[in-house]
Design brief:
Elements lengths: L9 H5 L24 H12 L3 H11 L5 H17 L1 H9 L3 H9 L5 H14 L3 H9 L3 H10 L2 H13 L4 H9 L2 H11 L2 H14 L3 H9 L2 H10 L6 H11 L3 H9 L2 H11 L2 H15 L3 H9 L3 H8 L4 H14 L7 H8 L2
Helix pairs in contact: 3-4, 4-5, 4-7, 6-7, 6-9, 7-10, 9-10, 9-12, 10-13, 12-13, 13-16, 15-16, 15-18, 16-19, 18-19, 19-22, 21-22
């Protein structure tokens, strides 16, 4: 494995990630509507939480999480999820009432009903939207059960587990811990085989978690580059930007660059530079810069894919960022490609 991209490229390449917010899932709460509540049920919950006895109502729901009846557990978990979906005050009250540990137990129980597990995952997701709750959720051991749900849960449980893990990954330490718990291969599987929302949630989580170097390694070894190249190649889909952003983070490692090239990523990236949207072109050029910076072989491959004409067109763009990146890449591609045997051997092993 080689070194990361040199520091002198950091400023230029950091602009790849300046505009990611609209590309990814917001993961601000469950959005699938999988718990349709009748109007009367919604009114009952609103009235209960607005009353002077709201704390007692929430405490009773928490007690019901330990009921011997799965149906009572489902009802309590569903109501906790609904109460925590949009109201910050409720998230704090529910956590203080002791809901987090029993919810985690419901996620991890080997005999847990899959729908009950789904409800519990979603409740934890909604509770994690409160920053005050994140440390408690992490310290209560939520990560491994969430990874388990991500691996074997229902489609909705997998999607919401990915979002919950994203919400719990605020620090580099937590990102590393989530990676060590096995989240990265499970997210790659969701990226490969999930529905559109699942793919989007998986890409969002991978983008965040792969700021940790050890998670980049895990992603590459789990086959992430194959899935990401396939998603980028589908230029008519809504996943092109998301996949390209994840690639832009992971490809700072030599092992990732090699995997990207092996999966046919150069041809796909050059096509994006030619026919993609303005944002897609910028991301693709940023990735190609990282690929070409230290490898004469990769520069040759990029040139042979016909990259220079679309790069010249992009260099005339009104976007200063796109123009700067395109000009730098053209300069690299036009550098002499000859070298001594030792240099070539080094390049071939990059």
């Amino acid at each position: 494995m080689g070194t990361d991209i040199p520091a002198n490229y950091a400023n230029m390449l950091s602009t790849v990630t300046d505009d990611t917010s609209s590309a990814f899932s917001d993961c601000n709460s469950d959005r699938s509507g999988e718990f349709p509540a009748a109007p009367s049920e919604s009114r009952r919950l609103l009235i209960a939480c607005a009353s002077e006895n709201s704390d007692d109502f929430i405490r009773q729901l928490v007690l019901n999480l330990d009921s011997c009846s799965i149906e009572e557990q489902k009802q309590a978990t569903m109501e906790i999820r609904l109460l925590a979906k949009n109201k910050q005050e409720n998230r704090i009250k529910i956590a203080k009432a002791g809901a987090i540990k029993p919810l985690i137990s419901l996620i991890s129980s080997p005999s847990s009903d899959l729908q009950l597990q789904e409800y519990a995952v979603t409740a934890i997701l909604n509770l994690s939207l409160c920053d005050e709750n994140k440390e408690l959720i992490n310290s209560s051991g939520a990560v491994r059960p969430l990874v388990g749900a991500l691996e074997t849960g229902t489609a909705t449980a997998r999607e919401n587990a990915a979002c919950a893990l994203l919400r719990l990954s605020a620090t580099e330490e937590s990102k590393a811990a989530i990676g060590r718990a096995g989240a990265i291969p499970a997210l790659v599987k969701l990226l490969e085989g999930g529905g559109l929302r699942g793919k989007k949630d998986a890409a969002t989580a991978l983008y965040a978690l792969c700021s940790a170097k050890e998670n980049k390694v895990r992603a590459v070894r789990a086959g992430a580059m194959r899935a990401l190249v396939e998603l980028m190649a589908d230029l008519g889909s809504s996943m092109v930007d998301k996949a390209a952003y994840v690639v832009s983070v992971v490809v700072s490692m030599a092992e990732a660059r090699a995997a990207l090239v092996e999966e046919g990523g150069i041809a796909v990236l050059v096509e994006i530079v030619e026919v993609g949207t303005q944002r897609q072109k910028e991301i693709a050029v940023g990735v190609l810069l990282q690929i070409c910076e230290e490898s004469v072989l990769y520069r040759t491959m990029v040139s042979r894919e016909g990259a220079i004409p679309p790069l010249v067109a992009l260099s005339q763009s009104q976007s200063n960022r796109a123009k700067q990146k395109a000009e730098k890449l053209i300069e690299l591609l036009r550098q002499p490609r000859s070298g001594n045997a030792a240099a070539r051997t080094s390049v071939m092993s990059a």
